[in-house]
Amino acid sequence: MKKLVAILMAVLMLVGIVACTAKPADKPADKPADKPAETVAQGKVFNIYAWNEEFKGFFEKYYTVPEGVTVNWIITPSDNGAYQQKLDEALLNQANAADDDKIDLFLAEADYIGKYVDSDYTMDISKIGFTNADTMYEYTIKAASDVNGVCKGVSFQCCPAAVIYRKSIAKDVLGTDDPAEVQAAIDSWEKFDDVAAKAKEKGYYMTASFAETFRAFSNNCTKPWVDANDNLQFDPQITKWIEQTDKYIKNGYTLTAGVWDAEKTNEMFKTGKTMCFFGPAWYYNFCMTNAMDPENGCVGDWCIVKGPQAYFWGGTWLLAATGSDNTEMLKDIFETFTKNEDVCTKLVQNEGQYPNNTKVAEKFASDPAWGNTMILDGQNDTAIFAELAKDIKWENHTNYDQILNEGLQNKLQEYFNGSVDYDTAMNNFYQLIKETYPNIKLPA
Amino acid sequence: MEKIQTGTGKKLKSVSYAKWGYIFIAPFFIAYIIFTLVPQLLTIYNSFFETYRIGLQQVGPNFVGLDNYKALFQPDANGTILILKYALNTMILWIAGAVPQFVIAMLLALFFTSTRLNIRGQGFFKTVIYMPNLIMAAAFSMLFYTLFSRVGPIQALLEQWGVIDESFDFFAIRVSVRSMIALMNFLMWFGNTTIVLMAGIMGIDQSLFESATIDGANSVQVFFKVTMPLLMPIFVYCLITAMIGGIQMFDVPQVLSKGDGVPNGTTRTLVMYLNGYLKTRNLGMSGAISVIMFIITGGLGAIVYKMLSAPYKDQNRKHRMRKGNVL
Description:
The structure holds two protein chains of two kinds. By secondary structure, chain A is of the alpha/beta class. Chain A is built from 18 helices and eleven strands. Chain B has one domain (81-322): MetI-like fold (Orthogonal Bundle). Helix content of chain B is 67%, strand content 4%. Chain B is built from twelve helices and two strands, in the order H-E-E-H-H-H-H-H-H-H-H-H-H-H. Chain B has helices at 18-46, 67-72, 82-113, 122-130, 137-148, 153-160, 174-202, 206-214, 219-247, 251-256, 270-278, 283-322, and strands at residues 49-54, 57-63. A two-stranded antiparallel ribbon of chain B has the order 1-2. The two termini of chain B are 17 Å apart. The interface between A and B is large, with 52 and 47 residues.
C-alpha cells in the first residue's frame, strides 16, 4: 500500500512539474517570423486589441469588412497598465495561438508605441504591400518605425495640440474674445501667468487640472527621460512644469484635479469657471462631451489658439501584429484611414478629427467656408492645427515614457493637493520607478 | 494497518478498503499539487532570481541569491522600510474592519440562535445581512469611490450644509480612506461570519444552555462559561480564515485608491505592493514578497491557533485522561 501511495505521489509530482514547465521551455524556439504575404491564406476572424471604443466607432462607420470575416474587438481599459498587460500576454503567446485567435491588429499610444515597434511582435507593413504616402505626417511614420526605420503601422490621426478657451471668460478677463488678440495675450508662459493672475482676480481659474499644461512641456523636452546608460534625467521643461504648477496651485490659478477627473471635465459645463484647456483634436470627443451637453453645455463659446508653446499630445497608432493571417485586410484598413480621402474628409467633417493626410487637411484649412460648429464658434480649427502640425518632431522618446509621465503626475498630485510635502512626493516617484524598472539609475 | 499476504493462495483474514480511500481523495491532491503546490514552489524558486521585463524584452532570469529579500528590507531615502509600512497598513486596515465584524457577528449570531428571543423572519434577516457579500468587492469599492469623490453626492451635501469647503478631499486624508476600506470590509464580511458562528452555536447541545439557566446563570455568564468555550474551535477557524483574507486584502483598497494607496501609500497593502511589481512581471521581487507573506500568515495563524485553542485542547486532554487515554 505504502509503495502504491509513493508511486502515485511521484507520478503526480511529475505530472505537475511537466505540466507547468513544458510550455515556457519550447517558447524561444519558435519566435514569430515574417512570412511573405502572398503565401498566406486569409483568415476568417480578425482580432483587434484596443483600450477604448474610439477607433471602433470610426472603424464601424467608415470601413467595410470583407464578406465572411468576423471582427473581434478585445477591449481592455488602460487603467493601471491593464491594457498592455493583456496585450503583452497575447503577443507573447502569438506564436502558439490558433490562427483565428492570433492578434491581427492592435492599437498603441504615443507614450509606449516604441515598446511594440522595436520588437519582433509587429511586422514590416511594406511586406504586406502598404507603402507610406507623401500625404502622411512624417512624425507619425517615425513613431511607428523601429530603430532601423522599418515601419510597423500607421496612425489615423495627427495630434498637434493647442489651447482651447472659453470665449465668454476671455471677454471678461481680457476684454476680447478674438482669437488673434487672445493669442497675443498668451503667446509666452510669462504672459500666460499674467493672464492667470487677471483671471483669478475676476474669480476664474486659468486651468482646471494641475496637469493640464504637462504635455505642452513634456513634449518639448530636449532630452529623453532615460539616457543610453539608463540614468534618469529631468529635462528643464519638466522642472519648469513643476515650478509653474506649484505657483498655480499656491495662487489658486488652477484646480487640483487630474487631467481625466470628473472634477475637471465638469468645468466645461456652462457653469464652469475655467478659461483654458489644453488639447488636440481628439480632445473634443474625448474630454469635452460636457461642453457639448445640449442642456448644460456651451457649444459655440469656444475658440482655439496656438497658446504659449506648440506641442502635440498622444495619438493612436494601428500596428500590424506579426503572425496575422489577415494581411490583405490589414493593408486595406491602413489605406482606408490614411490614404482614402473620402474617409479622411469624413473624419474631419463628422468626427472633429485632424486626419493623417496633409491633402485633406489643407483642403479644409484653406476652405473659408469650413468651420467647426460641433463645439467651436465656427472657427476653422483645421487651419490652426495644420500650421502646428508642420513643426511636430518625434524625438527624445523612450519606452519608459508612460510610467514616468503618468507616475510623475500621480505622485506630484499628492503634493499639489497638500497631503504630502515635495520631497516625499518625489521619493514616492523614485520608489515607483524602482518598483517598475529596477534597471533605471536614479539620481543620488 | 495489518499487512495481509496475498497471491500466495492463502485465505484472506480481512480485506483492506484503504486503497479506495486514497483513490477517492486523489482528485483533490492532484488538483492541489498542480494548481497550488507547484506554483508555490515555483514562487519560492523565482524569488531567488532577477527576472522582469522592460517592455517586451525579458531581463534574466539571473540567480541573485537573497538579493531580492535584501532589497525589500532596504530603507528608502526617508528611512522607511516599505514592506514593513505596507504590512502595518494591512494590519491596521484588517483590524479596523475585523473588530466590529466579529463583535456584531457574534451578537447577531447569539440573537438569532436564542430560544428566548425566538426572532421571527430569520430567513429574511439572514439573507439581508449576507447580501453585501454577494456584490463584487471591486464594484462595491467603485460605489464608495463615486460617493465620496470630489464631485460625488456626499461632498456636495456636506458642502451645502457648510460642514466642509470646496477644497476638501476625502481621499487626501489618511483616516477617511482607511475608515472607508474598513467599513467596506466590515459590511461585506459580517454576514458571512454571523452565519458560520450561528452554525457553531446551533451545534452546541441545547440542554447545556437550559441547565445553565436552571442553575441560575445570567445570559452573560452563559455566554462566557458555556457558549464561548464550546464555540472556540469554530471561532478560531473564523478568525484564522478572516485573518488570511485580511493579509491578502487587495481589491477594495486597490479600486478605491486607484492602485496608488492614497494618501502617501498609507492604504497600500502587501498584495498591492506585490501587484506593483507584476506590472513588469518582476517575478523575483513579487515572489520574495509572497514568501514573506506566506511566513507571516503561517506565523500569525500558529499564534492565534495556539493562543485561542489552548484551553480547549487542555479540556480535550483531560477528557481523554479521564477515559483512561483510550480513544
